[in-house]
Amino acid sequence: MPLYKLADFDPNYRDTFGGDDIIGLGLYTEGGVKVGSVGDVLVDADGRFRYLVIDTQYNFSSKRILLPIGLSQIDYNQQRVYVDGLSKEQVQSLPVYKDDMIVDYDYEEQVRKAYRPISSDVPYNRDTYNYQQDASLYNLNEQNHQTFKLYEERLIANKNRIKTGEVAVGKHIETETARVSVPLERERVVIERVNPTDAGTAVNPSELQFQQGEVARIEIYEETPEIRKEAYVREEVHVRKVVDRETIEAQETIRREELDIDTQGDLPRIQNDVTPNDRV
Fold this sequence. Notes:
Blueprint: E1 4-5, H1 6-9, H2 13-16, E2 26-29, E3 34-43, E4 49-58, E5 61-68, E6 72-75, E7 80-83, H3 88-93, H4 105-115, H5 135-138, H6 140-144
Parallel strand pairs: 2-7
Antiparallel strand pairs: 1-3, 2-3, 3-4, 4-5, 6-7
């Protein structure tokens, strides 16, 4: 049963855990005493956590050991890992773990013996061994401390501003023939010859004054049209934009995960209500 370092097994494990990282968290006892920190994680071929690599700190001495995952409780909210019973004597009896070593069955047996109850007399065989034989060491995390993330889909409404058209406002010149009527006056001379009222009456020759070259002058005028053009403001055009608003309703099918709990036997069921943003 080969074991792999977490980053070697899944280089993007932080994304898998939603950004959380167990490596680097402090290791504390149930009483709140810090006894070390998590240096790495060993997983099996299925990606299941099997061991936490712990850098222990006891009485100013340090030692790198393996801690079966079932003996730990991970609290991401407090950025801590709690250990269920890790004594100084256990640390001293555990073999040293080195990063470049291969963890084989014999090494794991040395680790398991340090954590197994003294009264345990179950026979173990390297050819038939299964982690389920040490459920208290490996399965406790899966039973009591595994984090399930329940996902749901939401509709996200965004707006994109796109160009739907363009209005160009300009002006051009149109021509037409305009007509205007101008009344004109023109003078003319009318010469009439009429019979005098005193025709036939004799005139005294001494009273007559005949004059040579007498001329009567009359000035004659006429009106001529004067046509000119004037430009004036006919109308003003104001150009502006207005925004019409409307609400568009979209419909889509979204999914949400709900937790299914299946128990066997007459077991008490305790369920703590948490908000969707709370960590399990």
